[in-house]
Amino acid sequence: MRRLALALFLALTIAHPLAAQRKADLDNQDRYDDTFRKYSKRFFGVGFDWHYFKAQGLAESGLDPQARSPVGARGVMQLMPGTYALIKKARSEGFGSIEDPEWNIAAGILYNRDLWQVWADNPDEQERLRFMFGSYNAGPGTIRRATRVAKTRQLDDKTWRSVEEVAPAVQRWRYRETLPYVKKIEGNYRTLEEAHRSKLVKKKK
Length: 205
Description:
Elements: H1 2-11, H2 23-27, H3 33-44, H4 51-61, H5 81-90, H6 101-118, H7 125-138, H8 140-152, H9 160-166, H10 175-204
């Protein structure tokens, strides 16, 4: 799967998030929940928290299935058509159109799974998530370069904080886009988790 992740990035990388996050998006808590839940379970397993991918979808497009970037990225997960075509070709699920929010979300989560495997040697799940999302935005090769710079400075190359520290020294990286992107996903995730807990409390009453 690592080869697929790297091939996808080298062919046509996933575009950078563009849509401004609107409060209305966060208020609409149930939008595409079944889809995020379904494909998170399929590609990451039963115990994996699907809210991470919804938080990513919010960061990418505000959950707008019609979102398009100036460079052509499309849909909820802001996939480039070429990247989507590679994912579709590699799978047997019968992926439909990139315009279909279900398949767009499914492809984004599948690509995340490939990137999750790229960072399989990281023993900390939270750190591994940050590296996965950072790679989704900047590409795994860029983040690998950042870890090498961290090593040369005798920093822990398995912590995202080290990557943040050395980011200005990493060549060919728009780090001012990637670092806030990872933080935005984490912020969205906290908001979704709070809303989820609130729902559970209301159900118990």
